[in-house]
Write a structure and sequence with these properties.
alpha+beta; five-stranded antiparallel sheet; 33% strand; elongated
């Protein structure tokens, strides 16, 4: 069995806070010297692109002291992608969106598995 990873982050309102990291955690947000409620674990970024430009970014997140403590979710952000496209360009964008939808569905299944594992603990 591997040791659980921890990180200690200084907060404005609670001083040093030690977090136990989930296995998928690759980093943290909400620091340095932020509020405890804003601390989060973050997983790897999945950048979904079209013709080399990001359309969406998705990553696992968990806010241990947020409004819904220790609920793992998938943060999804849309980029500011904006272009005037030809018919071929629109078809290409539509194909990229279909592929990205499949990737998001896969991430949803991974998230469901993480939720089930968290409930088993």
């Amino acid at each position: 069995m591997t040791a659980r990873r921890t990180v200690t982050v200084r907060t404005i309102d609670h001083g040093p806070v030690t977090l136990t990291c989930p296995a998928w955690c690759t980093g943290h947000t909400g620091h340095p010297a932020g509020y405890r409620a804003d601390l989060s674990h973050t997983g790897p970024e999945h950048v979904l692109v079209h013709e080399g430009e990001p359309l969406h970014v998705a990553q696992l997140v968990r806010f241990p002291y947020g409004a819904r403590p220790n609920t793992t979710g998938l943060y999804v952000e849309q980029s500011g992608f904006a272009q005037t496209l030809t018919p071929v360009g629109v078809d290409g964008l539509a194909a990229a969106l279909v592929a990205h939808a499949a990737r998001l569905r896969h991430l949803a299944r991974e998230l469901s598995a993480l939720h089930a594992a968290e409930e088993d603990r």
